[in-house]
Each structure stands twice: as structure tokens, then as C-alpha cells.
Amino acid sequence: MYRDPEIAEDTRARMLSWRRDIHANPETAFEEHRTANVVANALMLMGLPVHRGLAGTGVVGTLKNGEGPSIALRADLDALNMQELGTQPHASKCVGKMHACGHDGHTAMLLGAAEHLSRHKPFQGTVHFVFQPAEENEGGGRVMVEEGLFDQFPADAVYGMHNFPSLPRGKFAIRKGTMTAYLDTFEIVITGKGSHGAMPETGIDSVVVSAQLINALQTIVSRRTGATDAAVVSVTQIHGGDTWNVIPETVVLRGTVRTLDAGIQDKTQAAMQQICDGVAATHGAKVALEYRRGYPGVVNTPVETDAAIAAAASLVDIEQVHTDIPPAMGSEDFAFMLQKRPGAYIGIGAGEGPNDPNVHNPYYDFNDNILPLGAAYWVALVKQQLPVA
């Protein structure tokens, strides 16, 4: 069990209101204008100076209390392009968009922490509250860093948090080192020779080539990657053909690659190119691979991971803080911030039972019961890292 966090009732009520308002009005990557307004207005009402415009819709609020160290706390703003199927009163009002990953809750928890810290100032130093756009696929974290996040808002360390519906409420999960996977995407354009479906011998069948290529790509993980190494190669899209009796000239494959090590990432890309070249030569087709490096892995630094563990353990029994979870094959663009500053990314349990929908599910909804605990984690981390002299 966890100790009741010292978050005031009016702050708890506001967190719930912020969360459900943002959930009902989801905005996707780099379009979070309304959400950014909600965040900026809330921070200004707390008396914090607010900066807007990094990565377009990013918001940074700064709370300074005397001289001392500085840290950055990060939440994400964006929703996903998917249709919500839940029927709760605060369900998405936007067709084809929903907060299916809990960024609405992450934002509300960080706002709640900002309100508590601005009221009580139980620290000495500077806290930057970073609200980042476009975490889902579009790399808003990278853009914020490139546009000078840590130049304008110097921080000795940066911390992130994500809700885990698969982890029971009242628990935390973290690990030192690699926490999430490297995310890459690819597009393969197969160009054969179109022909009548009844006379395939007169052409080069791009559909057959694509089928053999998809099968061959699976050998990268099963036969070219060590059993103790981790990699995923998934073809997630196949596009080709317009009618029943025409073999198309072109088929396009798209997909994703996940790895936990930069060396395996390099080997996987090289193997994909080799397979594409070999299949093309076998069939006399052209196979063009475009491999795009995406998010790096989230790599938690040791000292900051210990700090995150200690902050969590001040709120729950230490046995409820899992410190050696396996790395996840999902990805997070918080990684770009960790490439520039030491820091740690922690998971907060949000599960109430075995049938809870996971993130990216159309029935998912952030668990409001964890709002006070999430805000209290941020407060505990600040008090620990920026102690009063």
C-alpha cells in the first residue's frame, strides 16, 4: 500500500478537471494549441513565468526559489489518431482522435505538482516544468532539444514518467540503463513489371517478390540476431494493386524495427539492405529500401535512477518499487532529452485489475486514482534533489 500523498483537496480536484477536459478535447502532434493554452493559463495562475513556442506548441513553466541546483520535469501533451470507443462522460469529442496513452494524465499530474510546489516551495533551486508536444511518432522531444530547451532552461538533470496499466496501482517500475527500445521505421518500394493476371510469365510479379521479401526479413531476428539480443522487425503495411486481373507494377511495404542496442540496430539495418538486394537480384526486380532512424533508446543514468527510486520509495513501500524490470520494446522520445542531460524515466502503476485496457486501446482511459500519487512523486523528487540548505 502507499501513504496518502500530501496533495491538497483543491489541487486534486483541479487535476481531475484538467485531465478530463484535455481528454475530451484531444489534439495530435504539433497541433496541441488548445491543450497548450490550458497548461499555460494554469501555470500563469500559479504565478509562474511561462515560455511558449518550443517545438511550436511546447510550454515550459519555471519555478525558482533561491539559488541552487536545477532540474527539469517533463510531461507529454499529444493524443493519438484513433477513434475512442469508451462511453464515459469525458470521452473524446473529436472524431478519430483520443488520448489513448495517458498524456492527459501525465500533464495533469505535472500541473498538480507545479501547483503544490509553487504554494509551499519546499526546496531551494529551480524547477522547469516541461510540457512537450508530439511524443507519438513525431519526435517533439527532439525538436524541443534542437530548438534550445536546455540552453534556455538549464537543468542538471531531467526526469520523465509514464503510466503503466499493466502494473498495479501503488507500484512503480524502473531500471538502470536501457529502459525502452530504439525505434526505426522503413519503407520498401518493390518495382517489377506489370502484367495481365492470367499471363504472369510476361511480367515480374511484385506481389510475389513482396511475399518472399516479407518472409526473408523475419530471418533477421530468428537467424541473424543472437538469442540473448533483442530485435523486432515488423512489416505493418502492404500497398499494391488496383483490380483483380492485373499484377501491379509496384508494391510498397512499410514497417518498424525495434532494438535495445545501437550495435544490433546497425546490424539489423545492414541485414535488411542485404536481403532487399538479394531478393531483387533473384527475381529481376528493383527493391529500394528507405530506412529511417527514429527515437533512440531511453537510457536511465545510474545516479538519477537511484534518485527516482528513492523518491518513489518515500511514497510506497520499497518492495512496491520494481527496480529491475525488463526493457520495453516500445519507444519514447524522452530519449532525446536524456542524450543531452542525465536523468531517469519511471513507470507508475495504473492497473486496477487484469482486464484493464492497455495504452493504445480504443477503450483505454487514464486512471484518475493515481493523479495524487503521480503529483506527489514529482514533489518528492524535487524535495530530494533540491534540498533546502
From TrEMBL:
Entry binding sites for Mn(2+): C101, H103, E136, H162, H360
Peptidase M20 dimerisation domain ranges (all copies): 185-278
Coiled-coil region list: none
KW Hydrolase (keyword) present: yes
Molecular function GO terms recorded: hydrolase activity; metal ion binding
Transmembrane feature ranges: none
Cofactor needs: Mn(2+)
Domain of life: Bacteria
CDD domains with a match to the protein in the record: M20_Acy1-like
PANTHER family: METALLOPEPTIDASE, PUTATIVE (AFU_ORTHOLOGUE AFUA_6G09600)-RELATED, PEPTIDASE M20 FAMILY MEMBER
Protein name, entry field: Amidohydrolase
